[in-house]
Amino acid sequence: MNKVILMGRLTRDPEVRYTQTNNTLVASFSLAVNRRFVRPGEERQADFINIVAWSKTGEFCSKYFKKGQQVGVIGRMQTRTWDDEQGQKHYVTEVVAEEAYFADSKRDGDMGGNFDATFGTMPSTSTGSDFEISSGDDLPF
After folding, report:
1. CB atoms within 10 A of CB 81
2. 3-class DSSP assignment, residue 88
3. Is the separation of the CB atoms in 26 and 51 below 8 Å?
4. 12: which DSSP letter?
5. Which one, of 120, 8, 12, 21, lies nearest residue 66 by Cα?
6. How much is the pLDDT for 121?
7. Tell me, which fold does domain 4-123 have in CATH?
8. pTM of the prediction?
């Protein structure tokens, strides 16, 4: 199984290009993903992971994702190789995004425009509860 789930901050705005053969949109960006543990006396470290989003997912990312935003990405890991003009072989490992979400709270993230920020957002944690008890007399025990 090849499934990757990441949450991190964009290190730059997504870069958009189109394929030569069928003019398909491709958005590329990088996420800074914090490592889970911090060694005592050291600063938290992050991994910088390249993300590629195609077609509609890429269009969504290019329109609404901006440098510094916290986002969630679900996709698959992919490796590619190519030879440059000097015959040097290059390898790259990247995540191909299949789903992309906002992970900032609505207060922190700047959605701008007429965009409904509830589309594609991650569930937020709530401090309130779904029910309320008005008095002790209503309890069955």
Report:
1. 8
2. coil
3. no
4. S
5. 12
6. 37
7. OB fold (Dihydrolipoamide Acetyltransferase, E2P) (2.40.50)
8. 0.71
